[in-house]
Amino acid sequence: MNHVQVIDHPILRRDLTVLRRADTPYGVFRSTLRDISSILAYEVLRSLKTKSIRIETPLESTEGFELDEDVIVVPILRAGLGMIDGFVHFLPEARIGHLGMYRDERTHEPVDYYSNIPPGIEKATVIVVDPMLATGGSACGAIKHLKEVGAGRIILVTLVSAPEGIAGVHADHPDVAIYTAVVDRELDENAYIRPGLGDAGDRIFGTH
Fold this sequence. Notes:
Elements: E1 4-6, H1 10-20, H2 26-44, E2 50-56, E3 61-67, E4 71-77, H3 84-88, E5 95-96, E6 98-103, E7 110-116, E8 125-133, H4 137-148, E9 153-161, H5 163-172, E10 177-183, E11 186-187, E12 193-194, H6 200-205
Parallel strand pairs: 1-10, 4-5, 4-6, 4-8, 8-9, 9-10
Antiparallel strand pairs: 2-3, 6-7, 11-12
């Protein structure tokens, strides 16, 4: 699977187990998702460019570094909202866009209903976040929309991915790197990831 980075970390594996459990309370689900998102963010942000600057320590002048690129984090509503805190923990200066998409339960196709993207996207690294990559329809729709408004470098970050979703994103957008915590077995007849963790949005917001 080219351009797929599966992040392997013992704390991530432990916390993913908490999210998979059907009896995990909503509050614990939200806080654990935030923690996992921080681990994913730490790995994704390794690729950011820095530039050298001169600073003064209490003793002398020395070389320091600061980030040399703009970052826009774009959650796919609504479940993607649960991953934002993990990214802004490390990058509080990141700007946040929003894309509203939902899956038609009959056709399993994405429906676009909202977009609010910060200006300057053509010069930024755009990180799209969504806990679940199932069919890939929502992710492909989001990436297509972002490219249409000028995005160049796009990274997709998910928590749980299905092979079908990865294949779908790579077929439509082979230039987009995918970071994920785990690649699960398959999609079922209702296009839910197996074994998965259920509907992430419902479990984040308590609407199950």
